[in-house]
Structure formats: structure tokens, C-alpha cells
Design a protein that fits this description.
The structure is a homodimer. Chain A folds into two domains: 7-90, Winged helix-like DNA-binding domain superfamily/Winged helix DNA-binding domain (Arc Repressor Mutant, subunit A, Orthogonal Bundle), CATH 1.10.10.10; 97-139, Ferric-uptake regulator, C-terminal dimerisarion domain (Dna Ligase, domain 1, 2-Layer Sandwich). The first copy, chain A, is built from five helices and five strands, in the order ααααββββαβ. Chain A has helices spanning 10-18, 26-37, 44-54, 60-72, 113-125, and strands spanning 76-79, 87-90, 97-101, 107-110, 128-141. Chain A has a three-stranded mixed β-sheet. In chain A, a hairpin with a 7-residue loop joins strand 1 and strand 2. In chain A, helix 2 (26-37) crosses helix 3 and helix 3 packs across helix 4 (60-72). Chain A is globular, with a radius of gyration of 17 Å. Strand 5 of chain A pairs antiparallel with strand 5 of chain B, so a sheet runs across the interface. The structure holds a DNA duplex.
DNA sequence: GTACATGCAAATGATTTGCACAAGA
DNA sequence: TCTTGTGCAAATCATTTGCATGTAC
């Protein structure tokens, strides 16, 4: 047993690349392991720094390029929270929203069936079909 | 009677600047009128182009600087929808969320008391206090 | 007159891209 | 081998800022 999540693990990410006829390079292997291993939402620079510890030859461009292909394959999710740079997380199949801790930058995931449903109702009333949505709560720990 | 909204009109915007001891310059007057007059959500460049028609000497920097002070005074809202640059709208006092038409870029405003309430409940359950939030629906017109 | 505002150009920060070389399949 | 990937530097995009000059109050 491992503490790695069932989905979004290195194997799933590798499969996403392989399935598209893309290559598993030494640097991609490192990046995928970091993505799959962590349970936070790192940005490109954080990913780059962590990767560089294992392989100092990795470049920031490669991190960005890898994020782009993984996103195109639906293997990861890209989030752009207020202010900061894009942050990434392995796609876990189940959609969820985010609560961002304004003090620490920490991201807490949550999911509300009722909110999802209400969103659909609203879109329908306005004559629209939802393609995607984003719901982000920004707050601080209650004392 | 005017088709200008009750709130977020030129007068409100001017008041926001005056109240902070700031000056109403020729270029600010033009920008404020455009913001107050339109009912869309223009980005800095769009604002700049419209302003330049009335006063070709206006610079993009001034648009950005004006957006910054107005935002600091709470007179306008800045939105960063997926992808694109920041877009602005006069603050109308009542909070609302947005549905973005993926084909036209058009922004439709809506408000759901029930969603607002659910968000508060969720944050509370997670031990947080919401400072702000953003809910954006991206979709296309239903045929 | 004096502090605040402006235009311009240069700086910034995040991200992307062109190119010559390297390396998976 | 042949195509895809990489590092590096330069380019791009949105936005900000330094500075000398202009102007609202």
C-alpha cells in the first residue's frame, strides 16, 4: 500500500503521454513523479525547483511544455487563482472546487452536489449550456 | 431619465476619486464616462481604444493606473476570466457572479442567493471564513 | 505653487517559441 | 533512423514603473 492517490499517479500520467505517442524522457519521468507524489498544487517554478533537485539539467521550459501536453491530454488540471501564476494538479477524475487559504496559499478541495446542480439550473434559465466552470472561495481560518 | 445604471455612474466613480483627494483629469473624465456608459466588461486595451477616440493623447498606462486607483477605492471590479486579460466593470454594490459566453466573450451577470448560502456553509464546515469568492460559468448558447 | 497625474519607454513576470543539438522508440 | 524532446536565449503578452514634464486644485 502506498500513500499515492488511486488516480493521477505516475502510471496514469505516463499512460496519458504514451497513449498519444509521446515519449517518456528522463525529465518527464522526474516531473510526473513529483506531480503524482505531492498532494499540493505547485506552480511551474515550484515544480521546476523540485525537479532540479533530482536532475539539475532540467529547464523551466520543459516544465511548461510538459504541463501543456498533460493538460491537453486531460491528465492534469491547470488553475489560475487570483493573482499568482498557474498551479497544477493531477486530474483525479472527480470534479471539485477550491478553497484557497489567503494566509498560507494552501488549497483545500471540496465538492458540492447541490452547488453543481444549482449552476446547471441557472445556466439553463439563461439559455446556456455549461462547458466548464470555476468556483473558488478565498478565506482565512476561523479562530 | 437615462439608461445609465443607478449605481456605478460617472458621478459615483468621480466621487470615489474626489473622496480620496485624487484629481479629476481630462483623461480620467473620459475613461470614467466610458466605464459608466457601457454595460459590457471591457479590458484595458478596449478601454484605451474607446478613450483614444475621444482623446487621442490618452495612454494605455493611464488606463491601467486609473483602473488601479478605482479598484483600490472599491469603485470598480476587476475580473480575470480564463485565458484573457483583466476586464473591468463599475461596482454596482450588489455582488453577482458571471456566465461567460465562450463564443462571443459576452458576460452575463447573475446572482443566486442559494449558492451564496451554500458557499458559506461549506467554508464554515471546513473551518474557514470567506473573504471573497469567484464563481464563473463558461458555456454556450443552447440551440 | 505644489502635489498628483501623464506619456513614453524601459522593466517586470509569466509563459511561449525558434533553433540547433540530444535522445527515446 | 526518424521523430519528438530539450536547453538556452530571445520573443511575447499583460501589466507596472522610472522619469521628466504637465496640470488640477
Amino acid at each position: 500500500m502506498t500513500d499515492r492517490r488511486d488516480n493521477g499517479g505516475t502510471d496514469d500520467l505516463e499512460a496519458a503521454l504514451r497513449g498519444a505517442g509521446l515519449r517518456i524522457t528522463r525529465q518527464r519521468r522526474v516531473i510526473l513523479a513529483i506531480l503524482a507524489g505531492g498532494d499540493d498544487h505547485p506552480d511551474a517554478l515550484a515544480l521546476f525547483r523540485r525537479a532540479a533537485r533530482q536532475d539539475p539539467s532540467i529547464s523551466l521550459s520543459t516544465v511548461y511544455r510538459t504541463m501543456k501536453v498533460l493538460e491537453e491530454r486531460g491528465a492534469i488540471q491547470r488553475h489560475t487563482f487570483e493573482g499568482g501564476p498557474a498551479r497544477f494538479e493531477p486530474a483525479d477524475g472527480v470534479h471539485h472546487d477550491h478553497l484557497i487559504d489567503l494566509d498560507s496559499g494552501e488549497v483545500i478541495e471540496f465538492r458540492s452536489e447541490r452547488i453543481e446542480k444549482l449552476q446547471d439550473e441557472i445556466a439553463r434559465e439563461l439559455g446556456y449550456e455549461i462547458v466548464s466552470h470555476r468556483l473558488e472561495l478565498y478565506g482565512r481560518r476561523r479562530k
